[in-house]
Amino acid sequence: MEYIDQTGSTNADLIESAPHRLDRSVLVTDHQTAGRGRLDRRWDAPPGANLLVSVLFHEVPAEAGELVRRLSLAAVDAVRLTVPGAGTVGLKWPNDILLEDGKLAGVLAQRSAEGAVVVGIGVNVGWCPQDGAKLGDGIDRPSVLAALLTAYDALPRSPDDLIIRYRDELSTLGQRVRVQMPSGDVVGDAADVTQSGQLRVRDDDGKTHQIAAADVIHLRPA
Ligand code: BT5
């Protein structure tokens, strides 16, 4: 594990240096000047306020999205352990951790030219944007990180068991959702996730859509 005061993006750093680093190298920083979200969006955090960390994987499972689900579940466990009174923690498909209804954390997976995968997570500890959620000012970031890495190792090894755990934590299931995709929006009820983590949404005409990547808005309970 390596710590740096400040960088552009911990994901970008690990992607760039992947060939020289060991499997499961961890890079954590106090401040990102170019924190990345998906689709070239930004990830914001003032210096020293939040947990910003990335993990490099040379050993990549057949379904690389599994790594996102693993880090997300580890974050859920870490929050429950370190801040037991925080409130209800759950997952929003595909890459958000929610505290109550606010976004507490986001996960971003990127692939290097050599085929390694870097999975980064930003957890709001002392700061969050409007409509976001945070753990609270007094929470110790290194403790959250330690709990996250320990929880990661304690997750079920088999992908089949992992998806069962993922379904349990996925608050998207059973919700009325709007799925935003370049091809157009789908509105319907989030019914299930497949073994490979795709979201199944049943629209109002009864047609089932199987979605690999998109943004999802929770509308109201179905
Ligand atoms: C994500 O993207 O949620 C992935 C975020 C991954 C951040 C980590 S930090 C360590 C590593 N290094 C990086 O450079 N990135 C990773 P997405 O689903 O696209 O969400 C991005 C959107 O969330 C933005 O467009 C904002 O609307 C919102 N946002 C930005 N900062 C936020 C924050 N701190 N808390 C909640 N929402 C935020």
Structure description:
- It is a single chain.
- This protein has 222 residues and is α+β, with helices and mostly antiparallel strands.
- The protein has two domains: 2-169, 2-Layer Sandwich (BirA Bifunctional Protein, domain 2), CATH 3.30.930; 176-218, SH3 type barrels (Roll), CATH 2.30.30.
- It is 23% helix and 34% strand.
- The chain is built from four helices and twelve strands.
- The chain has helices at residues 10-17, 65-82, 141-154, 159-169; strands at 2-7, 26-32, 51-57, 89-92, 96-99, 102-111, 117-123, 175-180, 186-193, 199-203, 208-211, 215-221.
- A seven-stranded mixed beta sheet has the order 1-2-3-7-6-5-4, sandwiched between helices.
- Helix 2 packs across helix 4.
- It is globular, with a radius of gyration of 17 Å.
- The protein binds biotinyl-5-AMP.
- Biotinyl-5-AMP binds next to helix 1, strand 3, strand 6 and strand 7.
- Residues 9-11, 32, 35-39, 41-45, 52-54, 95, 103, 106-108, 120-122, 124, 128-129, 132 line the site of biotinyl-5-AMP.
